[in-house]
Design goal:
The structure is a homodimer. By secondary structure, chain A is α/β, with parallel strands linked by helices. The first copy, chain A, has 2 domains: 5-13 and 261-356, Aspartate Aminotransferase, domain 1; 18-259, Type I PLP-dependent aspartate aminotransferase-like (Major domain) (Aspartate Aminotransferase, domain 2, 3-Layer(aba) Sandwich), CATH 3.40.640.10. Chain A has 12 helices and 15 strands. Chain A has helices at residues 18-27, 38-55, 69-80, 92-103, 147-151, 153-156, 204-215, 226-234, 244-260, 262-282, 309-318, 345-356, and strands spanning 5-6, 62-66, 85-89, 109-112, 131-135, 137-138, 143-144, 161-165, 182-186, 198-202, 287-288, 300-304, 321-322, 324-325, 334-338. In chain A, the strands form 4 sheets. A 7-stranded mixed beta sheet of chain A has the order 2-10-9-8-5-3-4, with helices on both faces. A 4-stranded antiparallel beta sheet of chain A has the order 11-12-15-14, with helices on one face. In chain A, β6 and β7 form a beta hairpin. In chain A, α2 (38-55) runs parallel beside α9 and α10 runs parallel beside α12 (345-356). The longest helix of chain A has 21 residues, at 262-282. The first copy, chain A, is globular, with a radius of gyration of 20 Å. The interface between A and B is large, with 55 and 54 residues.
Chain lengths: 359, 359
């Protein structure tokens, strides 16, 4: 290994092309570029068109930018919920989405299961729910919801909007957008970029809902309301001066991903995940935290490391592998390994080799 | 001139040290750095301590980060106003601050004067006003409010909070913080950095007010509430994954500014402004837009260029000077020149020389 590999789930390892794109961007004056210039509009268009192609986003869905995915949690509740959202909670991040609804004075409800587990197949949604909030990949525990589960709600809850937090899984999952109204992520995870930008994808139904709330005299925020974000995006613009450099870099990395091919990247993600889960299962001292194979995330792999956590961390770090700490109260007995496009097959193979020599 | 100079008021010319800081930051792994690490905490501390020293911010004022100054407009209204703010409006940006209060369903009031002018010395504030909102430097028109004017409100309105938008003037003005409760700016203007970060400075009275609203059951937002931003800042932390790289770069540029010295930088700003205003006054074809000398901004200098606008723009651009367009409806007959620390005396001297040869 030439240098260290950062396996923290986010901010994570930079995609290997980022430094060169940044050098080129500086040479081309991107950091001083006006967000009201034609040149910015073409950068905005290239980035959103690239994402549309990579993630197979239908043409009638809008793509807009915020400061973070945390901000999108707030904007979703503000713009899409008058009274009641229903949240699927199985870890710290899905819980925080629910708590944000409470902080915005909504009468939201939740279905909660313990950390490390997922949900029963058939769950009925409370009467009057306007928005169903699902976290595709619970970054704190390494539990991923299956796509059939996520897609199952639309049929029986046609009056609800379905919003999916895909912060630490995209660009891996292939969502069926006919069964989802909104998806969002941030760029410092699967896209291998410096933090500071959230990406929010939504359809016409979301826009209509926000406009309905506005028509009732309910405040849905100011500069980052869905109608204003949408109207600006139609002109390849943003309401405020955005993180221009991040939008530029995201466009460049998405182009790189398109050259590599979404299918290839997904297959590589599966290969790397299989490799690491196998190594954890075969190991004598550590094991996968998520017991049920069907619930195991492909993009954030959590190892139950018990009282060997500190020892294993040092062992890996001296070999150039920097694992992510366990989340919150699991800091002392778990390690997390991000499996993003920035993490190569060779790096995973070397990681697994190293793990096999840790007894 | 070796290369072009960007005089747009923002995003503006990069400070000359930024590219080197970025190179070093990449080498040190800043883009992949966890915002929950000790290393991030020390970056946060260095940046805020540097700002405290540079801007002479009292120790009982907090310094926190948002995605943009536009976001701070919203957060100020959300966190500090139950019903009524009073706004001083003399251009597009001060007007937008007022409109954001309306979008958040407040019963706000305003004192409005035409673009290019300032306010009468003695203005009484409507009964029941909780927050007085002042824009130190109206970026759209190049009108600056005097510091005595800004500082005058506290004495007669002790129950009000005073918030100052200093987006396109800091680090130039020397505010008296005993007469201001909150100040904010963004980094792509006077600090010469890529866009994507707002900086919000506030005192204990602001925090108390936000807590009072919370106690009344009023929602003040979720992740970027003042109490949560403050509690995190106490630990040199942020509520969400922030723009780590921008916080790092800001700290580096602030260190550079401290070496140069705030007094020197202020004197240079005055020198460069005097030079350009003199050139505009002496010119036969163009003139300063702001008629009253006392209202003229030192940091955003607006020229009335009439039907020569397009011709002058080309003339300057071929010489490597890129002026900012006039704002909104003044696009066709005005040009704006930012005068920030990134713009050197030599660049201003060359600009003025060029202007003198334009007949």
């Amino acid at each position: 290994m030439d240098s260290m590999v950062n396996f923290t789930p986010g901010p994570s390892q930079l995609y290997f092309t980022v430094a060169d794109h940044l050098k080129k961007g500086f040479k081309d004056g991107i950091p001083s570029l006006s967000h009201r210039s034609k040149q910015f509009e073409s950068i905005f268009a290239r980035t959103t068109n690239g994402l549309r192609e990579l993630l197979d986003i239908p043409s009638d869905y809008s793509i807009v930018f915020t400061g973070s995915a945390t901000e999108i949690w707030e904007r979703i509740i503000q713009n899409l919920v008058e009274e009641k959202s229903h949240h699927f909670v199985n870890g710290a991040f899905s819980k925080r989405f629910f708590e944000i609804a409470q902080q915005l004075n909504k009468k939201s409800t939740k279905t909660e299961v313990p950390a490390g587990s997922s949900f029963a197949d058939s769950i009925s949604i409370p009467e009057g729910t306007e928005l169903i909030a699902l976290t595709h990949n619970e970054t704190s525990t390494g539990v991923s919801l299956s796509l059939p589960f996520i897609h199952s709600f639309k049929e029986n809850n046609q009056e609800c909007l379905v919003a999916v937090d895909a912060v630490s899984s995209l660009p891996y999952p292939s969502f069926d957008f006919t069964k989802i109204d909104s998806v969002f992520f941030s760029i410092q995870k699967g896209f291998g970029l410096p933090a500071g930008l959230g990406v929010w994808i939504f359809n016409r139904r979301c826009l209509d809902k926000a406009n309905q709330l506005l028509a009732k005299g309910i405040s849905i925020g100011s500069f980052h309301t869905l109608p204003l974000l949408h109207a600006n995006a139609q002109k390849n613009q943003t309401p405020e001066t955005p993180n221009v450099l991040a939008i530029y870099l995201l466009g460049k990395v998405v182009s790189d991903f398109l050259v590599r091919g979404a299918t290839t990247m997904r297959q590589e993600t599966q290969y790397k995940a299989a490799l690491l889960y196998k190594a954890l299962e075969d190991h004598t001292a550590i094991k996968p935290f998520v017991a049920d194979k069907h619930n195991r995330s492909k993009t954030v792999i959590v190892a139950e490391t018990g009282d060997r956590t500190e020892e294993l961390t040092s062992f890996l770090q001296t070999r150039g592998f920097f694992p992510g700490e366990g989340y919150g109260s699991s800091k002392k007995n778990q390690l997390r390994f991000a499996n993003f496009p920035a993490h190569s097959k060779e790096q995973f193979e070397s990681l697994v080799d190293a793990l096999s020599t840790f007894k």
